[in-house]
Amino acid sequence: MPERSTTDRLTPRKREIVTEARALLEEHGAAALTMRALADRLGIKAPSLYKHFPDKAALELELVVLSLEETAEALEAGSDSLPSLMKAYRTYALAHPHLYRLNTERSLPREDLPEGLEARAAAPLVRVCGGDMDAARAAWAFAHGMVILQLNGRFPDDADLSAAWETGADAFEG
Amino acid sequence: MPERSTTDRLTPRKREIVTEARALLEEHGAAALTMRALADRLGIKAPSLYKHFPDKAALELELVVLSLEETAEALEAGSDSLPSLMKAYRTYALAHPHLYRLNTERSLPREDLPEGLEARAAAPLVRVCGGDMDAARAAWAFAHGMVILQLNGRFPDDADLSAAWETGADAFEG
DNA sequence: CTTGACGGCTAACGACGTTAGCCTTAGATT
DNA sequence: AATCTAAGGCTAACGTCGTTAGCCGTCAAG
């Protein structure tokens, strides 16, 4: 049973707001995630949002929490081997490009995160690497690099990214 | 002799502006790179900048060009082996974190780039990979992932990133 | 019946990118 | 020499952004 701290620690109204914020982000990208646009979507005015969140960063923090929780779930589901775990990571990231970017572009606000969440998201990878943190970090870096370079349009349009992925994933096995 | 298209195609005044923009970015980060702040630094008013660049994106494009050129130079210098080339990449990126982020976060505006620049920046890596594009892309993804996750504070503070780097770099050798 | 929390609202501020329109300077053209 | 033009400044202002101040209605608990 997945622990969803978002469900616990947020009031219902806050959760509604976060849900709409997420929809706005995923549908139209980070530039469209505006306090006014979000308020519109909720049928209220922008200043009213500040009755629930102190600022936009606090709202985005909840999106980061959400993304971390879902990543953890995705990795826990497909974590029988390193390749399958990495594939699960990639699949989740590519399925939620804007959320993934929001999560990874800023620096992680560790003090404000639910306790243990970061560790929980990292655990499946660490386990499948037999506790070798260096290997785990290197594999993460590769997976993140592949995904984010693709999302940011840094590879040529005709590049075969699945092939590059396989090449990299193979390198991390032996 | 390094080809610096920035030197060729930009008027002297434009080059001064780009130079100050770069300094502002590198010293105080992307949030500080404001048309008004940049103008202040040049002793002029913000609207005057639009006599030289159509918009902020055009200015940032020149910073991307600069970063790509310097990356190409850095890679051409230390390109005798894959590990040394990757190390050169990492060294450059960590030495210019804000410029590197600006370069890699947005999607690459290929139509507006000097012709051949992207290929030139990629060439050393492709060559050292013996033309194996999949291997080259995988290695790039790993290097970028390591660097950007570090710059974005995504690794724990006590993580030994040099060790993780070595682990990953070794994986790409065999 | 009152009180206070909850959750809306309007008006406004400062910073941002940007546009319109004016003016000076200096070199080139006639 | 007189004139035209391009370069490169300027001020004023607009629309959008996040955000703050302050007001008001609703409604459950004392």
Keywords:
9 helices; 174 residues; homodimer; globular; DNA-binding; mainly alpha
Q: Low-confidence runs of chain A (pLDDT<50, min 5 residues)? A: none
Strand content of chain A: under 5%
Radius of gyration of chain A (CA) equals: 17 Å
Oligomer: homodimer
Molecular shape of chain A: globular
Structural class of chain A: mainly alpha
Characterize the biggest β-sheet of chain A.
none
Description:
The structure is a homodimer of 174-residue chains. With 174 residues, chain A is mainly α. In chain A, 67% of the residues lie in helices and 0% in strands. Chain A has nine helices and no strands. The first copy, chain A, binds a DNA duplex (30 and 30 nucleotides) through loops.
Write the layout of secondary structure elements.
The structure is a homodimer of 174-residue chains.
Chain A: H1 5-9, H2 12-28, H3 35-42, H4 56-77, H5 82-95, H6 97-105, H7 117-128, H8 133-151, H9 161-171
The structure holds a DNA duplex (30 and 30 nucleotides).
Short recap of the structure:
The first copy, chain A, is mostly helical and 174 residues long. Chain A contains nine helices and no strands.
